[in-house]
Amino acid sequence: MSEFVQTRVAKRTGIIILDRPKALNSLSLDMVRALAEVLASWRNDAGIDAVVIQSSSEKALCAGGDIRFFHEVGNATPMGGSALLEDFFTEEYALNHLIHFYPKPYVALMEGVVMGGGMGIAQGGPDCGIRIVTEGTRMAMPEVNIGLFPDVGGSHFLSHAPGQLGNYLGLTGLTIGAADALYVGLADLFVPQAQMGALKELIASTPGAQLRAAIEAFAAPFKGQAGASTLEAKREGIDRHFGAGSVPAVMDSLVKDVDAFFQKALGAMRQRSPLMMCVTHELLARGAKQDVAGCLRMERTMVRHNFEHGEVLEGVRALVIDKDNLPKWNPASLEEVTPEMVERFFKPVWPASAHPLRHL
């Protein structure tokens, strides 16, 4: 087990605590493996009736994958072909699939920052997942900001968001809070941060078979206290602008809207990788037509192409390593992005029989 993943069992509930606070619980390969090992063992354990994943700190459930690791190993070998890098994404996406179809109640306490890979370990399947947010929740799929795309199943859960909300979140990479998360369908219940200690005590003292009902009863008095959803208030404009049909069309539409909300979205998109915004737009269109396994296989293929291209390596360099905030995107402008460039990211890397996620 990883030193950053702690586990215990209380009243037939398996409790997982992520404990890498200095890195906001960013996932390392060891952490992914530890999570997969314990969840696989608990899945068929007759002594475990429910699972809870939480953090040792209210600052973050998980800020995503360890992007410093991506940069280090991606630059260590030609074309970003590190075996460790390949293993990380294969095993992370397999973990996401395991969580999505977990057969027991899977409770995610989404305190603080929940972004990227953190969303992948929090978005349990619709039948068994219970996703809890607080007023401190800061949720996003910000991959386009570092030259990547919404992965960890993002092609599925964003593409199934109402209207054009998935395109808004995927193309801008902007952060949302509890009310918006509930409105989009990326969270289920709101609990005030001041009550999270009491909720954790309830979890530890409630028999696992009764946990779902107990949590829902605990959260019931706080329904509506997350506040008003900005995305709900701006929904008509979001659907109109982000349904424009292409990334250039979306930005052309946003230019004409003086509303500060939409100008903020436009400003964010002007900072993102032009290529990866176009790839993300196509990804969500394709993801809407596939099941979870198909989406994860598609994303796994795209990750290989992305590291070969180098866009994510440049994005991480600019925003995290050198911190000059001046990524040299390739290509540098939307006008230079061609359909062929986008299509290349979806080109099969392996025969179907050899795909690393063929067994999902």
TrEMBL record:
Q: Where is the Enoyl-CoA hydratase/isomerase domain?
A: 14-346
Q: Which residues form the signal peptide?
A: none
GO MF annotations, alphabetized: 3-hydroxyisobutyryl-CoA hydrolase activity; isomerase activity
Q: Which GO terms describe its biological process?
A: L-valine catabolic process
Keywords, ordered alphabetically: Hydrolase, Isomerase
- Under which name does UniProt file this protein? Enoyl-CoA hydratase/isomerase family protein
Q: Which species is this record about?
A: Massilia cavernae
